[in-house]
């Protein structure tokens, strides 16, 4: 295992465990600080992977994270509700998506990315 990867994994666990309630193992717990840099990176990863999997056809752009949950498993699962803009125009309509990302030893895997509300502004 590379020292940098291990350090990143420990940092991720420390950040998340410091923001969830007393018994975080197994169940979903709210992420109190969704503006944390690591949480923002996970959301950007999810949007980027969605765009990649759709061959960048009608790309989405992350606007904000509205809500987040974390689950401590063999690694960490993050469930985020994200607001995205559709297309590259500044006045493009937005939609809300729910995504889940699994993070283990610094590696991220997109589990799902699903629209839950369409056409918000």
Automatic annotation (TrEMBL):
Gene3D superfamilies: 3.10.450.10
GO molecular function: cysteine-type endopeptidase inhibitor activity
Keyword Signal: yes
Keywords: Protease inhibitor, Signal, Thiol protease inhibitor
Signal peptide: 1-22
Span of domain Cystatin: 23-116
Record bears the keyword Aminoacyl-tRNA synthetase: no
SMART domains: CY
InterPro entries found in the cross-reference section: Cystatin_dom (IPR000010), Cystatin_sf (IPR046350)
Protein name (record): Cystatin domain-containing protein
Organism: Linum trigynum
């Amino acid at each position: 295992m590379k020292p940098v990867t291990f350090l990143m994994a420990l940092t991720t666990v420390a950040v998340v465990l410091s923001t969830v309630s007393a018994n975080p193992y197994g169940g979903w717990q709210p992420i109190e600080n969704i503006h944390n840099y690591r949480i923002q990176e996970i959301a950007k990863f999810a949007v980027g992977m969605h765009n990649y999997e759709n061959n960048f056809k009608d790309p989405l752009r992350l606007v904000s994270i509205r809500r987040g949950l974390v689950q401590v498993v063999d690694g960490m699962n993050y469930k985020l509700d994200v607001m995205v803009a559709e297309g590259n125009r500044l006045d493009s309509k937005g939609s809300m998506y729910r995504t889940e990302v699994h993070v283990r030893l610094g590696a991220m895997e997109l589990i799902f990315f699903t629209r839950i509300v369409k056409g918000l502004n």
